[in-house]
Amino acid sequence: MQHRVVVLALDGLLPFELGIPQRIFGRSLGTEAGGKGRDGGKLYDVVTCSVRPPGPVRTDADFSILVEHGPQALATADTVVVPASYELGPVFEEGRLTEELAAALALVRPGTRMVSICTGSYVLAAAGYLDGRPATTHWSSADHFQRTFPQVRVDPDVLFIDDGDVLTSAGVAAGIDLCLHLVRRDHGTAVANEIARRTVVPPHRDGGQAQYIHRPVPEPQFATTTGARAWALARLDRPILLRDMAEQDAMSVRTFTRRFREEVGISPGQWLTQQRVERARHLLESTDLSIDQVARDAGFGTATSLRQHLQAALGVPPTAYRRTFRASADTAPRGPRTPVQGRP
Question: Reduced to 3 states, what is the DSSP secondary structure of residue 117?
């Protein structure tokens, strides 16, 4: 059976965010990236529901939407997605669910994957899904979110957090990043990349929310670290020193490091590791290269180093990752695969 994604539409919702799951999951076909799929059928079944019987739901725009499913749809979900709303009332103000919302969420089956986009994280936190767990939300709400839910480990700097069966994302477009991540987790990099290409968005964005937070700066800086990043991506299989990257943009190491973090949101070293992990994933999925050769071509040098980095990033060793996702390019997926546990 298809993996069912149920999107919970709450009054005051943002139409853009409501449409993200349908655009990413609803357009995910078994034929993506050359796979045979389920006779070309969709990999996910996406439905939208309300906490009330079918009917209109207010948005933050000058129109409402007609939702054709009531809360009973939540009982059929394999994944529940909660987009942001500007009318959360006591959920936002006091950190507690309304009776209506609590009754709807009580229908969710144990083990269902729970996902929030932007301030939809308030709903997951108020329902107790985030107790003692890492989570994120829009950077402008992060401080309030932490005060309201002190039991949650809030990280305001990342685009999304994957904590296994509960995932949270930052504001608006980070919901696209998270949904693509879930497709990548369920069906592999090639499928996610093809969906990103069709949607005309990057398959993976560097850095976190830090790069979008407004901070006073002195005079405009015209020099960027773009050249160094392009240079590094072309030679990931070779040793890359920080000073070599700085030289590409004619900066001192200190200036380059500061500028890089401002533009990308993470350090050059963290960025390099991310890019090498992505290269390794691609090679494991799309080639028959040995693990030793994948490690060399991705710039990790040894199979041991590759194993350590892939385990840290994805929660699985290279052989297990290849066994799960290499098959997806050659055989028809028959329902959702066992998720790969990992973090961005």
Answer: coil
